[in-house]
Each structure stands twice: as C-alpha cells, then as structure tokens.
Amino acid sequence: MKAKKMLIIAFILFLAFGFFMNSSFMNAKKNEVYGMLKEEYGLSSDTDTKEEIEQQEIESTEEVAQTDVKVTSRGSSNEKRSNENIVWDYLIEQGYSAIQVAGIIGNMYQESGVNPAREETNGIGYGLVQWSFGRRQQLESYASSRGKSASDIYVQLEFLVKELREGKQLRGTYAEQFANPYSVDQATEAFCWGFERPHKDHANMANRKKQAWAAYYRNVDR
User: Fold this and answer.
1) What's the pLDDT score for residue 168?
2) Please, what are the domains in the chain?
3) DSSP category for residue 89
4) Which of 62, 94, 153, 156 gets the highest tally of CB atoms within 10 A of its CB?
C-alpha cells in the first residue's frame, strides 16, 4: 500500500509540475509513469494519452507509405506479367486451347522474355517470337498497313495468328502435333521446332517447357 501511495503521489507531482513546464521531456515522463500505472493496476487502454494516440497515427501512416513503396517497386515484374496476360487472353479468344497457348508463351519467354520490343543483338530477330529476315519485313509491312508500330503487342499477336492460320510457318508433323497436343510439353516442342526453328544447340528446350508450364498454371484458372 505504501508503494502504491508513493507511485500515485509521484504521478500527481509530475502532473502538477507538467502543468507549468509543458515540455516534451515532461510529456514523456508523464506517459511513462502513466504507463506504469496502467500496467500495474490494469487501467483501461481507452484512456490513452493524446501523445499515445498521435504516435499510433504516425505509425499507421508510415505503414501505408511502406506498402506503397513495395507495390511501386514491383513495376517491372508487373509489366512482364501484363504482357503474358495479354498474350494469353488474346490467343484464347482466337480459339486456341490453354495447352497450346502455354506452349506458345513458353517459347516467347525463351525468345524475347515476352517483350514485343526485344531485338536480337545482331539486329536480325525482333518481337515476341523473334521474327527474322523476310518474316520480320512482313511483320513491319503488316504493322505499317495497320498504321501501327511493329512493336505493338496486339499487332504482333494479329500477325502471329495470321501466320498460324495460313500455315506458312507451322507445317507437317509439327502442325499436326500443335493442332491437338496431349500435353504442354508437346505443344511447346511442336511450336519450337515447327514455328521458331532455332538451332538445336541453342534451343534450351528445358527452359521453354519450364516457362510454358509456369504460364499454364498462372493462367488456366484465372
């Protein structure tokens, strides 16, 4: 009881002194003693001091600011994801199956990172699937006829579908396999060897399949 009385008296003295000396030091001490009283005697947290409430508001604002920074910092990742979504949605709307589209996207990741503005270091390949030589010229002519840039992702997808439907690039056994693939792996291989036609030493089929399966699972139930 004696200790309790001394603690209460000390608190009253601090309040009285703080009335005349309203400094940040006194406020801090006042809250410290008040906190001890709350902890010791179970006072309600509803009677938090003004300083405690203001500090809570500051901390809440800082948390929001930190969240905004985290969201903004993921901009580059969101851009790649957005391109993948655009490709997926467009090709699905054109009637291609989820397995076929996954196979195409897996190849695009290997060829360009699904970046319609990607140009090969030697200046030959260009776009989502790295159109080269005469096919690049045809893409550029097609874009010009549409009044669009050759880097426009939708122009490239239109041209890609045009090539697939005309059967100029994907023919024979690979065309048959791609038309009715039994797995994402088969669709990826058929599109690679029948449409992309890379040198076997640089095909990196393992990565194409890995990216194709990843795209499939990210989008199939979206």
Assistant:
1) 80
2) 2-73 (no CATH), 81-219 (1.10.530.10)
3) H
4) 156
